[in-house]
Each structure stands twice: as structure tokens, then as C-alpha cells.
Amino acid sequence: MKYICCSNIQSGLRFEYNCIKLCCFMGTNTPDPLTIKKDYYGEKLNWSELISKIQEIRSGFKRGEIDSHCKGCFALREDDWDDNTKFKWIQIAHWSDCNCNCTYCYRVASEFVKPKKRYKLMPVIKELDKMGLLDYSGELAYSGGEPACLREFDDITNFFIKKGERNIMVHTNAIVPVKSVLNGLKTDTMSVTVSVDCGDREKFKQIKQIDAYKKVMNTLKRYVEAQGLNKKMVRSKYIIIPKVNDTKEDVNKWLDETERIGIQQVIIDFESDWLARNSKNIPSYIDDLYDYIVADIKRRGLDIQFYGVANQYRTIKGKDLDVGIGLHKGD
Ligand code: SF4
Ligand code: SF4
Predict the structure, then answer these.
(1) Which residues pair with 89 in a beta bridge?
(2) Which protein residue's CA is at the shortest distance from atom 6 of ligand 1?
(3) What CA–CA distances, in Å, run from 230 to 56, 258, 273?
(4) CA 4 to chain centre
(5) Which pLDDT band holds residue 74 (cuts at 50, 70, 90)?
(6) Are 149 and 95 in contact (CB under 8 A)?
(7) Three-state DSSP state, 64
(8) What residues have CB less than 8 Å from 325, skipping those under 6 apart?
(9) How confident is the model at residue 315 (pLDDT cuts 50, 70, 90)?
């Protein structure tokens, strides 16, 4: 049936450290993504109940009613959606432990409520698999705390690799190399994204509040070398943080270093809180910087992708929409 909806409402599932959602978008226009289970800490789930809840949400979209949580989201599109009940876009963010301290991290935000307890996700994944509710032709994306700080990271990752998951997307700070990432990269199905945000030790210390730039670059080099046939699976991300890394010099240093270690794909994003505060009054020097970054990346022959907050920016400004929103690989 043709209607306006998004792939996450159709088949997304995101486990967070205290709840289950359908997506992760917390951009300017979607500050509160659809939550289907609040206060969740690994308890046994009634999947029929949850699926009915998702179908109820979908019914609204079928009637042409855009849920208030989704109004203005760049991911909405008209399509011929089926009535699939399998989960295809899985996001794992059920832990918040990390060995870094980025100034923009959700963990340092005042509204961050420390999780009541940690929970294991592997039993839930196995249960979903047993019930035939997982579709491995989409994507598994990690975006919680740091993979190196999650004990079951290797187990979950290896489980999905064995099942033939089409795309596995790992977000890591790369301070410590992770074994299953080094192995996963060989399969050509795993991508690794690291928010480096700068091109030198001092700026790194300022943004990450830890002196680990060299370690990160060393890990990235190992990840680049571990790649299989596809050499674009290791990605360096640049979160534009106004007043911190907002000059052409900052960008040039980052791109020089990115090329030096052999990374071929980069990702642009914006600090989400800043864009939320300034979406109606973005200074022109930021527009100029954005244009410069995109032009320079293209000039260097690197691949470019945009993340959620950058997509909100591009939607507001109507910029480079031809590049695509890079929502899900394979979607
Ligand atoms: S429309 Fe946007 S906010 Fe709503 S579920 Fe989809 S991705 Fe999330
Ligand atoms: S690496 Fe990620 S989880 Fe860790 S502090 Fe930085 S943004 Fe937060």
C-alpha cells in the first residue's frame, strides 16, 4: 500500500539502555523518537503486544496521519510499504559505558539519567531469531557506549556475522582495537565509523577530554588494513562543533590525516544541541564552512555521507540533497 512512512516504522528496532524505540533520531524536528517500551532492562518481552503497538502506529500513517514524534523528519517518504512484521533495521545502544569523554556526548548532557542497571541483549536477540522475527537482509547498527566496553559485543557481532547479516555498522571511538571488528572488516559486510572530529592531538584532547589521538589513529590504521575487498568500510566522521573545530584549517588537518592513513569515506554531522538551539539562526560562516568541507572532500576524491543532524541541517537549507540521506545502507 502506498503511503508516507519510514523504514524504521516498518521494520526498525532500537534497544537503548533504558527503553526500546523504533529509531534514534533526536534531531531538531524530531526531539523525541517513537518509544515502544519504556523502562526496559532486559525483562522478558511480550512480542505480540509490541508488534500490535507498532502496527497501530503504522495504521495512523496509512490513514495519512503523521505521528507527532515524526513531523518534519527527513526519513519520511512515500513508498509502496508492505505489511512486514520482521525486524530488519536493528540498532543496539543498550549500554552507555565508555572509555572516552566527548564534550558532545549524550552521557554528559544534563538530562542524561544514568541507567538503573545494565542488561544483556544476547538472550533477546536469540529469542527474536528463534521466533523468526529477524530479517538479516537489512542492517545491524551499534551506537551505544563504546564497543570495547561492552562484554557481549563480540558474541552479538559474531552471531549476526554467522547469520549472514548483510550490513553491520559499528560506531566506536577506536581508542582500543576490538577483535570482532578486526575480523568483521574482512567480511566486507561490516563498516566502522569513528568520530575523529579533528586532525591533531591538542584539538582531540579538547573535544574528547582524553589524550588518545595517537591510539585512535593507530587503531584506525589497523582497521584500514583489515578491510576485505571493499576499501570504503572504515569511516572518519567530523562533527562540526561551532567555536571548537569550525575553521578551514581544522578541516584541512582532519582531511590530511584521514587521507594519510588510507581512509576513503568520510561522514559529516553537526553537534545536535547546537543545531537545535540555532536552527533558525545559523551563522553564515557555518554555511560557508559546510560548503567548503563538501567541496574539499569531493576535490580529494573521498566518498561522503551525512548523519542525522547534518541531514536536518541539509533539509533546513535545501543543500546537496542529491547526495542522498545515507539513512541505511541497502535501503
Ligand atoms: S519518521 Fe523519523 S522520527 Fe519517525 S520513526 Fe522514522 S526515522 Fe524515526
Ligand atoms: S565515544 Fe561515544 S559514547 Fe564515548 S564519550 Fe564519545 S560520544 Fe560518548
Answers:
(1) 12, 139
(2) 6
(3) 40, 17, 34
(4) 23
(5) confident
(6) yes
(7) coil
(8) 74, 75, 306, 311, 314
(9) confident
CA dihedral 193→196→199→200, nearest 10 degrees, is -140
Contact in structure between 242 and 282 (CB atoms under 8 Å): no
Shortest-distance Cα residue to atom 8 of ligand 2: 105
Q: Is 222 exposed, middle or buried (0-12, 13-18, 19+ CB in 10 A)?
A: middle
pTM, 2 dp: 0.90
The pairing of strands 303-306 and 190-195 is unpaired
Integer-rounded Cα radius of gyration of the chain: 19
Sheet holding 168-171, edge to edge: 35-37, 20-21, 12-16, 87-93, 134-142, 168-171, 190-195, 234-240, 265-270, 303-306
Atom nearest to 67 CA in ligand 1: 4
**Chain Cα centroid distance, residue 287:** 23
What distance in angstroms lies between residue 154's CA and the mean position of ligand 2's atoms?
A: 19
Mutate-to-test residue for ligand 2 from 92, 107, 269, 307, highest number of ligand atoms within 8 A of CB = 107
**Domains of the chain, CATH where assigned:** 2-323 (3.20.20.70)
Which ligand approaches the C-alpha of residue 5 most closely? 1
Residue nearest to atom 1 of ligand 1 (CA): 70
- In ligand 2, the atom with minimum distance to the C-alpha of 172 is 1
- pLDDT tens for residues 235-280? 999 999 999 999 999 999 999 999 999 999 999 999 988 998 998 9
Nearest CA to ligand 1 atom 8: 23
Instruction: Check residue 237 and give its pLDDT.
Output: 97
**What length is written for the chain?**
331
Amino acid code (one letter) for 203: K
CA distance 279 to 126: 42
